[in-house]
Design brief:
It contains 8 helices and no strands. The chain has one domain. Helix 1 runs parallel beside helix 8. The protein is mainly α.
Length: 190
């Protein structure tokens, strides 16, 4: 089954300094979230985990770009300000997602840290699968992981919906987001 909009994740991004960067990242996040949802429906939970994690990471990139000046204002050094602009926004390193989320919490994005923790747990699940002992993964079963993936997809949709007012959303973003929200509403319980 081909999903509409998948080619979005294959096209080059605008430069992070461009106004179109945030809209492109939000669209990419929605497309990744829809792919994750598709994989959950097909029972491919580990594949869904990878897509859900990427969707969240992409939302963080959009948030970091939108709030770059406020984040630079709370940065502790010139080196950290330069790192935010040159490395954090375009790449969102997995190893720094917690610290970046803490900074976003400081500028008013309540709940981002908890969602980032969920995303990182899902990321672990992608590599280790279900773990009854919970040594390598926080999820004992596929079902637990799938429910958390659906939760994270819902958070992606909620955040993108809220951020649309701050950017000039493209028709493609509007359509993709409405499709994602409709698919989430129509999802039968797992």
């Amino acid at each position: 089954m081909a999903l509409k909009g998948v080619e979005v994740i294959e096209t080059p991004l605008p430069k992070p300094s461009s106004e179109d960067y945030v809209v492109a990242r939000l669209l990419e996040a929605v497309v990744e979230a829809r792919l994750a949802l598709h994989f959950v429906k097909e029972g491919l939970v580990r594949d869904a985990a990878g897509k859900a994690f990427q969707a969240w990471r992409t939302v963080l990139a959009a948030l970091l770009r939108l709030e770059l000046e406020r984040l630079k204002a709370i940065a502790k050094s010139e080196e950290e300000r330069r790192w935010l602009e040159e490395r954090a926004v375009p790449r969102v390193p997995t190893s720094r997602m917690i610290s970046l989320s803490l900074m976003l919490e400081q500028v008013g994005y309540r709940g981002v840290l908890a969602d980032t923790n969920t995303a990182l747990n899902i990321h672990d699940y992608q590599y280790h699968g279900p773990d009854p002992d919970m040594a390598l993964s926080r999820y004992r079963t596929r079902e637990e992981a799938a429910l958390n993936i659906l939760f994270l997809i819902g958070e992606v949709a909620r955040l993108v919906e809220g951020l649309k007012a701050r950017v000039k959303p493209s028709a493609e973003l509007e359509t993709a987001l409405e499709d994602l929200k409709r698919e989430l509403r129509n999802l039968a319980p797992l």
